[in-house]
Design brief:
373 residues, Elongation Factor Tu (Ef-tu), domain 3, 3 domains, six-stranded antiparallel sheet, 22% strand, binds protoporphyrin IX containing FE, iron, Globin-like_sf, 2Fe-2S, heme, nitric oxide dioxygenase
C-alpha cells in the first residue's frame, strides 16, 4: 500500500473545503436513506466531524499501531449513534465516491485499491472493538436529571442519576445527549468521583452557538432524560505513579474534572497537599466557590485559591490563575483544565517557567469541535 499516495490525495481533496463533506453526505444519504436519522437534524457543514476524521485517520494508516487504542475507543463509542458493522460498507462507498469526484483524473485503480484497503483496516479495528464492548456494556446509559442549579447567567450545575452502574474514573469525561436535542452529542467531564447512588455532576456553560449547551443550561429541568456514553480520556486521571502534592489550575467549567480528582483524594487517599487555583474572568463566574470552600474547610490538605482576571472591583486575588499558581510551584505535578485558549496559554507559561513536560497533565475544551465546555 502506497501510504504517501493516500496522504497526498487526501491533501488534494481537502483543498475543496466544505464541498467535501457536502458531497460525501449527499452520496451517503442518497444511497442509504436509512442512515440519515443517525445524524443531527442540522448538518451544518462547518460542524462536520466524520469526514474530516475519515480522511485524517485513513490517510495515516501507516501509523495504525499508534492509533489502535483511539480507534477502538471510537468504535466502542460509535455504538451510541446506533452504528453497527453493517453500516461500514456504506460509509466506505461514500468516501470512495467522494475521493473519485474530487480527484478526477488522478483517481487511479491503484489509489482506489489502497484507499479501500486502508478503510477496511480502520473499520475492522472499530467494528471488533464495538463487538467486544457489546458483550459487557450498553451503547449508552440513561440518566435522569435530579437537580438543575443555575449558578450564574449561562452556567448550570446538573446532577443526574444513571439507570445502572456506570464505571468511570475521576478526571474522565463522556459524551452526553439530551432528549430535547436528540442526536447531538457533546463531551462533558464529570465533576465528581464515582458515588454509591450512581449520580454524576456536570458543569455546563452555555457556549455561543452551542445547541446542546444552551438547551441544557436554559431548558433542562428535573426529570428530563440524558444519554451518557462510556467514560473516556486518561489525560486528567490520577495514575498511581503520580505521587506527592498536586497543583491544579482550573479555568471556568474546566474546574469539573479537577474537582473530581479532589473528591477522589478525599475518598481514597493518600492525602496530599492540593493547591487548587480557580481562574475566572469575573467573580460571578466563580460559580462553584461555595462548594469548594466547604470542601477546603473539611479537608486541611486542600487549599482553594480563587483568582479573577477581568474585574477591577474584585476584592480577592486578581490576575491570571497560572501566574498565581506558579508562585506556589515547588516541583509538584500540575493539572490544568479550561478552554482551549486558557489551557494552551497556561501550559506555555508552565513550560517557560521550567515545569517539566511530563509533570503537566492537561486537557482542553474546544467548544466548536464537538466539545462544549
Ligand atoms: C472508519 C470509519 C469511521 C471513522 C474513522 C469515524 C470517525 C468519526 C469521528 C471521529 C466522529 C466524531 C466523534 C464524535 O462526535 O463522537 C464521528 C462521528 C459520527 N460518525 Fe463516524 N466514523 C466512522 C464510521 C462511521 C460509520 C460507518 C457510521 C454510520 C453511518 C458513522 C456515523 C457517525 C455519526 C452519526 C457521527 C456523529 C456526527 C455528528 O454529530 O455530526 N461513522 N465519526
Amino acid at each position: 500500500m502506497d501510504t504517501q499516495a493516500l496522504k497526498d490525495s487526501w491533501h488534494l481533496v481537502s483543498r475543496s473545503g466544505d464541498q467535501v463533506p457536502l458531497y460525501f453526505y449527499s452520496v451517503l444519504f442518497l444511497m442509504n436513506p436509512d442512515v440519515r436519522d443517525m445524524f443531527p437534524v442540522s448538518m451544518a457543514r462547518q460542524r462536520d466531524k466524520l469526514v474530516a476524521a475519515l480522511g485524517k485517520v485513513i490517510s495515516n494508516v501507516d501509523r495504525i499501531e499508534e492509533v489502535v487504542p483511539v480507534l477502538q475507543q471510537l468504535g466502542r463509542d460509535h455504538r451510541k449513534f446506533a452504528v453497527t458493522a453493517t453500516h461500514y460498507p456504506a460509509v466506505g462507498q461514500a468516501l470512495l465516491a467522494t475521493l473519485e469526484h474530487f480527484l478526477g483524473d488522478r483517481w487511479t485503480p491503484q489509489l482506489a485499491h489502497d484507499w479501500t484497503q486502508a478503510y477496511n483496516l480502520v473499520a475492522q479495528v472499530m467494528v471488533e472493538a464495538a463487538n467486544d464492548a457489546s458483550k459487557t456494556s450498553p451503547p449508552w446509559w440513561e440518566a435522569e436529571i435530579v437537580s438543575h442549579d443555575m449558578r450564574t447567567l449561562g452556567i448550570a450545575v446538573i446532577r443526574a442519576r444513571l439507570n445502572y452502574q456506570y464505571p468511570f474514573r475521576p478526571g474522565q469525561s463522556a459524551s452526553i445527549s439530551y432528549a430535547m436535542r436528540p442526536r447531538i452529542w457533546r463531551f462533558y467531564s464529570f465533576a465528581n468521583a464515582p458515588r454509591q447512588d450512581n449520580t454524576i455532576d456536570l458543569h455546563v456553560r452555555m457556549v455561543d452557538g452551542g445547541v446542546l449547551s444552551s438547551a441544557l443550561v436554559m431548558g433542562a429541568r428535573r426529570g428530563d432524560m440524558l444519554r451518557v456514553g462510556a467514560a473516556v480520556g486518561e489525560r486528567l486521571t490520577l495514575p498511581p505513579d503520580v505521587q506527592g502534592d498536586l497543583l491544579m489550575i482550573a479555568g471556568g467549567t474546566g474546574l469539573a474534572p479537577l474537582k473530581a480528582l479532589v473528591e477522589q483524594i478525599a475518598y481514597e487517599g493518600p492525602t496530599r497537599r492540593v493547591d487548587l487555583v480557580v481562574g475566572a474572568r469575573n467573580s460571578r463566574e466563580l460559580y462553584d466557590y461555595e462548594a469548594l470552600a466547604k470542601m477546603a474547610a473539611e479537608h486541611p490538605w486542600l487549599n482553594v485559591v480563587p483568582v479573577v482576571s477581568h474585574d477591577p472591583f474584585y476584592r480577592g486575588t486578581r490576575g491570571y490563575a497560572v501566574d498565581v499558581a506558579l508562585q506556589g510551584w515547588r516541583g509538584q505535578h500540575v493539572y490544568v483544565c479550561g478552554s482551549e485558549e486558557m489551557a494552551q496559554a497556561t501550559v506555555g507559561r508552565l513550560l517557560d517557567a521550567g515545569v517539566p513536560t511530563e509533570q503537566i497533565h492537561f486537557d482542553e475544551f474546544t467548544s466548536d469541535k464537538g466539545r462544549e465546555s
